[in-house]
Amino acid sequence: MMLYNYNPNAHTRWSSFENLSGAKGAAAMENNGAKGHAFDAIPAHGKVTMMETEGSGVVRRIWITTNERDAYILRALVLRMYWDGAEKPAVECPLGDFFAFNLGKMQAFDSALVSSPEGKSFHCTIPMPFRKGARIEICNESDRTVSHLFFDVDYTLEPVADDTLYFHAWWNRENPTALCEDYTILPKLSGHGRFLGTSIGIHCDPEYKPTWFGEGEVKFFLDGDGKYPTLSGTGLEDYTGTAWCLGTFTNRTQGCMEADEGNRYCFYRWHIDDPVWFHEDIRMTLQQIGGGGANDVADVQKKGCSMHVVSADWMGDLKPLYDPEKPSYIINPESEEDKGRYFNYYRQDDYSSVAYFYYGAPASDLPAIQDLEKRTARTENC
After folding, report:
1. Do 25 and 135 belong together in one domain?
2. Tell me: the pLDDT tens digits for 210-227?
3. Which of 37, 104, 311, 358 measures 20 to 30 Å from 370, CA to CA?
4. What percent of the chain has pLDDT over 90?
5. What pLDDT, on the 0 to 100 scale, is given for residue 380?
6. Residue 278, domain extent
7. Burial profile 329-351: b = 16 or more Cβ within 10 angstroms, e = fewer
């Protein structure tokens, strides 16, 4: 619908502490109509239902801020969203990760789906339709009470089309990843829908310095794919729209908010202009492959780091070296065979991610979120 088209069937509602029910004519009633209930606490091990309604409609906007926003609390606060009375949440994700702060370091950025104008709030404009009802909760799984929670959940009550899909988000972390195995961004999911995008946080193992971590390719396994996928990228930084390593930038559909000397990377990619549809099933992975010059990768190998050489490049001459049934190729940077080459190799790092997608059902069979201890291990490196 164009901005200027009238919709007689849509009714606007906002849910906040000033009107949790979204009822007509029932907002800002406390304190005799003055500012009476802008915020409230989330008790330790408690939750707040930020929005609950019956009928059909679309969540249009979510805005949240809290007085505590450190890396630990951003993993301890969990967003859960339920559609159409389902017992299992369609969204179950740490607060910070959902808004693309996968490593817990907030900063100002803007993108088409989530943003933070000054790095002090969380803002989402992903449309989230429902047919029979919706409930959105924020759960505090820590031992700390968060004294100030502010939020608005803005939605419209209106009919939705029969072919409307439900919004889902799934969080994962592997710390560390498994050697020679692709990291899972989205496990195999049967059904139909549209993959919307991903946000990813990586804390690289310092033992691999000074080599580059991001040679791995994104893979989409679609509609019955077996060993090999239908879609594959060419490298991690290429997937985010840039090239030749990864610096900081934020664009409408792709960006990297963190790329620092501590080998911490936090980035996002939204498939708005290039939709990824699936009709039978979908699975998304990311190879755990890094790279570097012969001398640097040989030094990593000599240190005894967990690694397996994949290939070597010299002026466009790519030499395959990976055989999963054999020990890793041993690099000799002084030999004519290896001197001056760029080597790709499997490695292990700390990865976390959110997969955002639309799906044909209000709930899925994806695994539940990992417990607090696993989510917050090495919190300083979240």
Report:
1. yes
2. 999 999 999 999 999 999
3. 358
4. 95
5. 59
6. 170-288
7. bebebeeeebeebbbbbbbbbbb
